[in-house]
């Protein structure tokens, strides 16, 4: 009877586990369905623009200025499509552990300055002030893939602009977390993320609001790229108050440079 009882207990546990797994499958299928629907929409929007303008221009009768505007829209929308497809390819590379880093020395201040230039126009449109605050007392150099790290910060600052209201600000702060770790914070005063959603935003495909565009892959990709660099990415946020994304990266160990306390002896 005791053995029977044990079986009963184990069967009960097995049933509960299977139930849980079934629920997880349903949940992850739902997430994938949502992703397919949002990515289809994301791909369709630029395609519609490209189709519309190429048909219009083919029909002829436009002056050079009008033709130029049409061509510029086609080119911008094509760029957007390439960006979306690249994001999907990056995600799939990361999933399969196939993203290769091209390692070099990366000056974080220079990288963030470049990043800011890339989002300047978008921020300007919403009258958002972008500010870089370098609080480290020496050049902050990390070892990593400059293009991939730029992709991370571009994504974070782009999100900050996207989820901020007009006339607000975004601060990028560089500090030394400790003698061997750099810390970059992207701080916005935007719409924020509720506690309920905060744990999920770095999950693949997750978006709080599907109407704001995007694929829901950006944070998942960024987090994994940071982790490939042996760093960490953390998000703190308060609904209605703003979001801070903190990225830590290991510093390049300086040889024989006095005074910073961060160098190795040999
Ligand atoms: P995407 O921006 O393509 O939707 P991300 O993975 O970059 O995908 O972000 C996932 C979700 O996290 C966003 O859709 C948004 O809901 C939320 N989010 C990301 N960054 C911020 C931010 N700075 N402020 C508020 N919400 C954010």
UniProtKB/TrEMBL annotation:
It is a multi-pass membrane protein. It comes from the Bacteria. Keywords: ATP-binding, Cell membrane, Kinase, Membrane, Nucleotide-binding, Phosphoprotein, Transferase, Transmembrane, Transmembrane helix, Two-component regulatory system. The chain holds residues 213 to 478 of 501 of the full protein. The lineage of its organism: Bacteria, Bacillati, Bacillota, Bacilli, Bacillales. This is histidine kinase. It is found in: Cell membrane. The keyword Transmembrane helix applies. One of its GO terms (molecular function) is kinase activity. It is an enzyme of class 2 (transferase). It catalyses: ATP + protein L-histidine = ADP + protein N-phospho-L-histidine. Its EC number is 2.7.13.3. Residues 38-253 form the Histidine kinase domain.
